[in-house]
From TrEMBL:
GO molecular-function term, one example from the UniProt record: calcium ion binding
Gene Ontology terms: cellular component: cell surface; plasma membrane; receptor complex
Organism: Micrurus surinamensis (Surinam coral snake)
Protein name from the UniProt record: EGF-like domain-containing protein
Family matches, as Pfam families: EGF (PF00008), EGF_CA (PF07645), hEGF (PF12661)
Length: 458
């Protein structure tokens, strides 16, 4: 069998590049005794008739005819090697780890740590790096800013030079512009007028602005406040705009000048809560609350326990337009003013005792099989209505219940189930069992007889 330690991989009868491209004729070569595999390679034929060469370590190619350059581990410093076959020639390529470069990863990559900053370009040179700095920076790593203002005359016509990181800026005298203050300034190019104002030159270095409505100032930089003569009514707040104003109205008013009343009764949700009736008024509204609620919007539940008359020891729980008295042990009634008759356990065992809240008397709810005021009387289920036992079973009354004595062939609490005597498989010798009421019949195979077909008559 093929050596699993050799570099080969077959997946769905596809052999990867180490074993080279496959041809259908290769299987015939193996079967004919030819030796297409060189350098000790083994010719392997797969179940689909395709053949391939399984090469010895260190050899690659369709016929194992090439030495694998990666077999000698040419990549240094932990680099990974990959062999390729192009135009009949074997090549290899090293993928170097971080910090190394070169064909065999033997050269130290000094630029791997990106030592050049501020846009500097890094180049390797004999294991060291060199930074080519952009304009405005200098130093081994391009960290130092060049002070361009040390060069006199950089800013013309009396301009002041201001150094900036990586560059400079000229602060020009009035009438001059440009990077070096080299150009005579035209007042309206660009326009100094803001907010859509129109610039008009009035002299060599002077101008004036024609402002749009709503603005003023030398450069039209001031928005005129239109609110001093506003017409906002009913507590509305004036909000200045551009050559206009808006009125911000309180919730009760609307309209341009807050003069239109808001009908709160038409709002959703309704201004009056919990079923209250809303009545609109000029600049407001009023609510008529249903019983149990109060407040401006009928959202406050009236505490009925403030006027409740629960007896001493009871706990009052407020409800909507009512209250509930939680009684202490031994007391009952709407106000806990009655003695609880259930304390003395007047009801028979398993019965449920409740107290009449009007008079404090006990009310017994009987379990099945018992009746009477105290649930102490047994119900004779056998004498009321139809016989509860099916299939002519005999009903026997018991305390709180009844039992059924079933006739032959039936079972169950009410004799409702037919006993299948065939379940015990009484018939022998492959006979068929026929279930009947209270009995069974065996239908014997030919040659057998007897109640259970147990007799061989042949």
């Amino acid at each position: 069998s093929p050596d699993p330690g050799r570099a080969w991989l077959v997946c769905g009868f596809l052999v990867v590049a180490w074993l080279a491209r496959l041809a259908l004729g290769a299987a015939v070569q193996c079967l004919d005794g030819n030796k297409p595999c060189e350098n000790g390679g083994t010719c392997v034929v797969y179940s689909n008739g395709i053949a391939a060469c399984l090469c010895q370590p260190g050899m690659i190619g369709e016929h194992c005819q090439f030495q694998d350059p990666c077999h000698q581990s040419p990549c240094a410093n932990g680099g990974s090697c990959e062999s390729t076959l192009r135009d009949g020639t074997v090549h290899y390529q090293c993928t170097c780890p971080k910090g190394f470069r070169g064909q065999d990863c033997s050269l130290f990559d000094a630029c791997a740590s990106k030592p050049c900053v501020n846009g500097g370009r890094c180049t390797n040179w004999n294991g060291r790096y060199n930074c080519t700095c952009p304009s405005g920076y200098q130093g081994r790593n391009c960290r130092s800013d060049v002070d361009e203002c040390r060069v006199s005359g950089l800013c013309q016509h009396g301009g002041t030079c201001l150094n900036t990181p990586g560059s400079f800026r000229c602060q020009c005298q009035a009438g001059y512009t440009g990077q070096h203050c080299e150009s005579i300034s035209t007042p309206c190019a660009p326009s100094q007028c803001l907010n859509g104002g129109t610039c008009r030159q009035t002299g060599d270095l002077s101008y004036e602005c024609a402002c749009l409505p709503g603005f003023e100032g030398h450069n039209c930089e001031i928005n005129i406040d239109d609110c001093p003569d506003h017409m906002c009514m009913n507590g509305g707040t004036c909000v200045d705009g551009v050559n206009t104003y808006n009125c911000q109205c309180p919730p009760e008013w609307t309209g341009q000048f807050c003069t239109e009343d808001v009908d709160e009764c038409q709002l959703q949700p309704n201004a009056c809560h919990n079923g209250g009736t809303c009545f609109n008024t000029n600049g407001g509204h009023s609510c008529v609350c249903v019983n149990g609620w109060t407040g401006e919007s009928c959202s406050e539940n009236i505490d009925d326990c403030q006027t409740a008359v629960c007896f001493h020891g009871a706990t009052c729980h407020d409800r909507v337009a009512s209250f509930y008295c939680a009684c202490p042990m031994g007391k009952t009634g709407l106000l806990c003013h009655l003695d609880d008759a259930c304390v003395s356990n007047p009801c028979h065992e398993d019965a449920i005792c409740d107290t009449n809240p009007m008079n404090g008397r006990a009310i017994c709810t009987c379990p099945p099989g018992f009746t009477g005021g105290a649930c102490d009387q047994d119900v004779d289920e056998c004498s009321i209505g139809a016989n509860p036992c099916e299939h002519f079973g005999k009903c026997v009354n018991t305390q709180g219940s009844f039992q059924c004595q079933c006739g032959r062939g039936y079972t169950g609490p009410r004799c409702e189930t037919d006993i299948n005597e065939c379940l015990s498989m009484p018939c022998q010798n492959d006979a068929t069992c026929l279930d009947r009421i209270g009995e069974f019949t065996c239908i014997c195979m030919s040659g057998f007889s007897g109640t259970y077909c147990e007799i061989n008559i042949n």
